[in-house]
Amino acid sequence: MVIHIVGGGPRELLPSLRRYDGADVHWVGVDRGTTALLEAGLQPVRAFGDFDSVPAEEVAKLQQMLPDLEIWPAEKDKTDMEIALDWAVEQDACHIRLFGATGGRLDHLFGNVELLLKYAGRPIEIVDRQNVLTVHLPGVHTITRDDRYRYVSYIPISETVAGLTLIGFKYPLADCHISRGSTLCISNELIQSSGTFSFSEGILMMIRSSDFAGCP
Predict the structure, then answer these.
(1) Nearest to 133 by CA among 74, 85, 40, 204
(2) The model's pTM
(3) In the chain, what is the straight-line distance between the N-terminal and C-terminal CA atoms, in Å?
(4) Which fold has domain 136-209?
């Protein structure tokens, strides 16, 4: 089972959601991201949020259309996205993607990145029209070339990332130690059909980006 969660980020940053649909995909709406799903012709299996950004008449319609709509109070200890992601992780999904999680308010953006750290090591991505963001634990990881996302950047999330090795890249590395705050591994490129990145200690964020904000 694959779970795709759509948050309330700016619509112009959403990729084509239908491109990510499939027989094994379960869609989940978060706050006004629920209406984005319905407008795309996709039926959410669950919807979460306080819906404080959605007009009352639209909330009433959503309640009629979605019996499993979960309306939470605005004052709570988790964001709507965290509530939805916690539920998705409990379903033991083999892959989770977050849409509508970037752009707009920076506090929401950084909060959503923190959610990837909370579940570091699980197959969870943040996806928008220009980027795919993942968080990785030590080990050897394979990456396949995708011409939609030309640039590949690695950002240390922990204080230090030890033994970083990049194979198959324009700018290779061998057993390099990088510290938080380093920009050494920004804007690399795969020059082979696939490559690997590996490291022995720390937590590493990988961001794959396109040249323009028009990636489908």
Answers:
(1) 204
(2) 0.89
(3) 23
(4) Rossmann fold (3.40.50)
